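Hi R.,

As promised, here are both runs. First protein below:
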Amino acid sequence: MNKFKEFLKRKDIEISGKRYGIDALGAMAQGLFASLLIGTIIATLGEQLGIAILVTIGGYAKAATGPAMAVAIGYALHCPPLVLFSLVAVGAAANTLGGAGGPLAVLIITILTAECGKAVSKETKIDIIVTPFVTIVIGSLLSMLLAPAIGKAASSVGAAIMWATELQPFFMGIIISVIVGIALTLPISSAAICAALSLTGLAGGAALAGCCANMVGFAVLSFRENKWGGLFAQGIGTSMLQMGNIVRNPRIWLPAILTSAITGPIATCVFKLQMNGAAVASGMGTCGLVGQIGVYTGWINDIAAGTKAGITGFDWLGLILISFLLPGVLAWLFGAFFRKIGWIKENDLKLDL
């Protein structure tokens, strides 16, 4: 047993929730952003501006989604170069065979494959053949065996969530908004979760509301301490910056959480806000305005499919209120109350920017 532990340590194989549930998942979200998300944004710009070359470029980026996620995960797992590069093929296989649940299939299969590749890396004199051979063959076999089932399971869970949201938009709007908003601020990836579950439609709209409530909420709530730098860092960047302060005083999270519990059902019941763009955008909030671009892309897709007549003023009003105005106003009001009763004190939200 000691020898096995020494082997794992030598190979930097760390079987832990942090390594797989935080590091790998967070890296996967970056891979998604650097392929599917940015590709969608580029293609959308091309379509709206009538620039065909941008549409083509966006298509290339989206086609690299599986490999990009796999390489990002491998990087987070500290894979040696030959293992890392071989994961390109594994990501392509897992994402393709995983269907709508491709991101989750890529996550699970890449983790298993990467650790196998690391185990054999540099153990033979013909490493340049053995390592990529083992990595690609194991990853491809796992993809053929597991990816379809993983994809089907993820799609089923996502479909159940979306069905429940259609059935009970008020209660599910609250639940999804709060949970996904919390996931966005925690050191895990709300974007990867939404992508893995293919969370779109009304459920995607609720998820977007929760993310915006946390990002814009913390940006406005902490303006007193962090000024304009903090406003943009959290409002366009990520509310995860507040995690250290949340650990010190969990009460500072209440304004954002309460805000998400309000804006979620408003999004689903009042504005019928749907995310019919890329599912990953449901978990992005206002980060680079990806969430809002995703909603807009969904509108365009729906119009093209004939399920939506056009984009109305009410659509824009809902998107602006849910994304920016309501999170800012509500979080500020809740924050003022909690500051008054002493639950939030001066500099509790201060960031080292």
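And here is the second one, sequence first, then its structure tokens:
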Amino acid sequence: MACKNYFWPATVRLAGHSFMDKQPLKQQLRSALRWVGWVLLVQFFLLNISAALYADKFTHFDNERSPAVSNPDENIFKKTWRLFAGQRQHKSIVEGYPSFSFDTITLTTKKGRIIDTWYSKTDSLPKGTVILFHGLTMNKSRILLEASEFRHQGYNILLVDFRGHGNSAGNNTSIGFRESEEVKLAWDYIFQQGEKNIFLWGVSLGAVTILKAIADYDIKPAGIILEMPFASLKTYLKARARAIGFRGFPEKPFAFLVTAWIGIERGFNGFNFKTYNYAKKITCPVLFQWGALDQTVGKWETEKVFNSIASSHKKLVIYDQADHESFLQKDPVKWRMETEKFLTASSQ
């Protein structure tokens, strides 16, 4: 009995210690969920910080010459860093000037921002005027070839630098949201010259901005020529992710978060920036052009925007061997034929 009395308390203590150290299953689950929650919260904050940085760099231009295009064969770590940290954008430099006579016309936005344009009259009796709008990170010197062709076809031309691009003032872009004011300013200037037969031509960003300007200001062009407009800000950002090398799932949170932060930083709702909604207000004749090899604007986007156009006088022209590039340079014979036929048929 003495031995039993001696060892029994120890057994009780050991048993009690073992029982007390073993946590209930519910408590273990709560602990695990708490850690998962903290990890997800930290990731959420890091993703939003990255998206905010990317949005700022994507919509802001430094006053430096544009660098060379990044190497598409760079490793996954560099691609990931570019996706989440963003890449500096440099303000585009006007590198060439028209070979024909022109006047520099400055327009002024409501907030006093100077918009630089080139205006040139054709040497023959003009058939009308074509106003041209460039793409993102470009400027009017990059669309001189198209301008020269329209002039050769017998039209006066006006080339416009969007805010933050080329010789226009500013260092920020809203990817077409506020740039619609520049379209209205250019339209007003030509209309005040007594011109009635006014056409608008735009490529990518320029095409999107034309659609938004018509929806915003109810301007009435004789016709518009749209080349490869993207469907929305969000789809364009998905294309940016794909260009870096990320397809599938990474596109979705990236595009969603950057769209949100562009809106926050630039003061508009990025999710409402949808080209196909603006297209619903288009009633004038439309020539819509797209490249079948386009890696930036997909077929479904093109069809969605084109089908949304309210006008019954619209035509979709597809360039089978073209990417997101100048169709005039890729297939000059087809481009000249389609544009000249459209302008002639739509002239007032």
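A quick note on the second one: The first strand starts at residue 61 and ends at 62. Let me know what you think.

Best,
J.
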